[in-house]
Amino acid sequence: MDIASSLAIVTLAALIHASFQLSVSVLTLLSGHAIGAKHSHARVLRLTFGYVVGVGVMTLLALSFISLIFLHLFGTEAPQFVWAVACGLLIGVGLAVWFFYYRREKGTSLWIPRSFARHLSDRSKATKSGVEAFSLGLTSVISELLFIAAPMIISALVIIQLPGAWQLVGIGIYSIVSMLTLFSIWVLISSGHRLSTIQKWREDNKHFLQFAAGGALAVLGFFVYVCKILTDVAGAI
Amino acid sequence: MTTHKHIDIIKRKGRRPTESFNRDKLHQSIVAATLSARTPEGQADSIAHAVTNYVLEWLESRPEVTSHDIRLVATRHLRAHHPDAAYLYEQHRTTL
User: Fold this and answer.
1) Would you say residue A68 lies in a domain?
2) Is A109 close to B94, i.e. CB distance below 8 A?
3) Which chain B residues are closer than 8 Å to A199 by Cβ?
4) Residues of chain A predicted below pLDDT 50
5) Which end of chain B is more exposed for a tag (fewer CB within 10 A), N or C?
6) d(Cα A122, Cα A165) in Å, to the nearest integer?
7) How far apart are alpha carbons A65 and B61 in whole angstroms?
8) What is the pTM of this model?
9) Residue A203 structural domain
C-alpha cells in the first residue's frame, strides 16, 4: 500500500472517529454546567479548552499505544489474518452502530454502560478547574473506546507499515482530524452560540450521524479488505 | 437552605434514598438551565421564581412525588417562559 493510500485510510478512519458523539455530549454538558454556575466567560473557555486538549492527548496516546503494541507483535507488516480480523471488526462495529448507537429514547443518550454515562455526567457537573476538565477529556475517550477502537486499530495497522517519519504524520493526521467535530463545537460555544441550538441540531440529525458513521465503518472495512487482502491474494496467484 | 412543607421526593424510581423537597435546589437547577440558554442573571432568577412557585402550588395536594414528576411539571411551566431553557432542562438527563 503506498503512502497516499495509507494516509487516506487513516484520514477516513479519523473522520469516522470524529462523527462519534460521546465527547461532544460531555463538552455540551460541561459548558452547560459551567455557564449555569455563573462562571466568567474566560473560565468557561479555560474549562472547555482543558477538556478538548484532554480528548486530543488521550486520542494521541491511545493510537500511539496501539501502534506500538502492533509494532512489537508484528513488526512493520501485520499478517493477513490480523488484517482480516480488523476488517471484520470494522464491518461488525459499523452494523452495531447502525442498530445500537443511540438509545431508543428522546435526546442523544448513547449505548454505553450507564455507570460510565453517570460518572461522566456527574464529573462534568463537579469539574471546577482546567486540570479536572483535562482529566475528564482523558476519561471520555476511554469511555468511547467501544466505538473508536475499530478505526484506531485499522489506522494503527496502516501506520506501522509506513516509513518512520510518515508514522508520526499518520498519528498526527488521525489526532487532528478526529478532533474536528469537537473543536468546531468548542468554537461555537466559545463564540456565544446557544447550547440549546447545538443540542437541538445534534438531536434532529442523530439518525443521519448514526447512519453515516455505521456506513463509513462498513465501507472502510470493505475497502481495506479489497485493497489489502484481495490484492495480496491476487498478487500471490 | 429553606424547605417548604414536608414532601417526600422519590429519586430515580427508588434507586436512590428518598429526600425532602427543597425549594432552593429546584430554584437553582432552573436558574442554571436558564443561564445555560444565555439569559441574563436577573431574568433567569425571576423565571426560576415563577416556575418554582408553580411547582409548589402543584405539590400542595401531594405528600409524595417522584423527582421525574417534578422535572416534568417544571419543564412544562418553564417552556411557557423560556422554550430554550426548558429544552436544556428537559434534555439534561438524556444528553449522554
Assistant:
1) yes
2) yes
3) 87-88, 91, 95
4) none
5) N
6) 41
7) 60
8) 0.92
9) 3-230
Give residue-wise pLDDT tens across range A58-83: 999 999 999 999 999 999 999 999 99
Whether the Cβ atoms of residue B23 and residue B42 lie closer than 8 Å to each other: no
Task: Give the domain ranges of chain B.
Answer: 22-94
Q: What residue ranges in B4-95 does DSSP mark as E strands?
A: 8-11, 16-20, 64-66
Nearest to A38 among B35, B85, B93 (CB): B35
Number of domains in chain A: 1
Question: What would the pLDDT profile of B32-86 be if each residue is shown by its tens digit?
Answer: 999 999 999 999 999 999 999 999 999 988 878 998 899 999 999 999 999 999 9
CA A227 – CA A219 distance, rounded (Å): 12
